[in-house]
Write a structure and sequence with these properties.
Blueprint lengths: L1 E3 L1 E11 L6 H4 L1 H9 L12 E5 L6 E7 L4 E6 L2 E9 L2 H18 L6 E11 L3 H8 L13 E5 L8 E7 L6 E11 L4 H6 L1 H10 L3 E3 L7
Parallel strand pairs: 1-11
Antiparallel strand pairs: 2-6, 2-7, 3-4, 4-5, 5-6, 7-10, 8-9, 9-10
């Protein structure tokens, strides 16, 4: 099994509201204040929040950009999305984990609702040749110009199927891009559950004979 270092990683969450929430029902002022709370929210500044409204029923969008524009939050009548990208270190992961945990605590979703989770990373091989040799095992047709791996897997301690994609990175030289798409119900013990996301990524990728070094301590 190849074990390679992680260069960049990110996480994205998408949670639909069923039924959709009208402008009055959404309580956006209280929600925005909660996001700005440094103790229980994600410590946003008021100038980082923007609200667009074009209808009195479902026509609104609250958005925020933070972590130097690497973090985004978008809430509309039918869903809320939260994403963080371009993380690089163990410290970055701890900040992401705190952000996700506080987000779920603040949202207090219905326990029957479902989150779609997308995660990704770029991990570097020692050379382009070694990267291409490893990923070439997934090429089963001479007409394919570039090999990639795609599969749906199940692992212990994760309730839903996980879609795993591995292909050459177009961002980091000598690297592969790995992407995960899966779901979970919103009835978890959030800190411990969300803390298991890197383990889910690792264990499902292991089925493709690839593993990752721990998040580095510093860049």
């Amino acid at each position: 099994m190849e074990i390679i270092p992680i260069e960049v990683f990110g996480v994205h969450l998408d949670v639909p509201f069923i039924p959709p929430l009208g402008y009055t029902q959404a309580g956006l002022e209280e929600f925005g204040a909660g996001l700005c709370d440094p103790a229980t929210g994600i410590n946003l500044r008021v100038e980082q929040l923007r609200l667009k409204r074009w209808d009195d029923l479902f026509g609104y969008e609250l958005s925020a950009h933070f972590f130097g524009d690497n973090g985004t939050l978008i809430r509309t009548a039918d869903r809320v999305k939260l994403g963080v990208r371009n993380a690089r270190t163990a410290g970055d992961w701890q900040i992401i984990l705190q952000t996700l945990t506080r987000f779920y605590t603040l949202m207090d979703f219905d326990s029957k609702s479902v989150t779609t989770l997308s995660a990704h990373l770029h991990a570097r091989f020692p050379s382009t040749e070694e990267r291409d040799q490893w990923i070439g095992q997934f090429s089963h047709n001479a007409l394919l110009t570039k090999a990639a791996a795609l599969g749906y897997v199940r692992i212990f301690d994760w309730e839903k199927e996980i879609r795993v994609l591995i292909e050459p990175s177009n961002v980091v030289p000598d690297a592969v891009f790995c992407g995960w798409d899966t779901q979970f119900t919103n009835n978890q013990e959030w800190e411990s559950f969300l803390g298991s996301i890197p383990t889910m990524m690792e264990n499902s990728a292991n089925l493709f004979e690839i593993g990752f070094e721990p998040f580095r301590e510093k860049v």
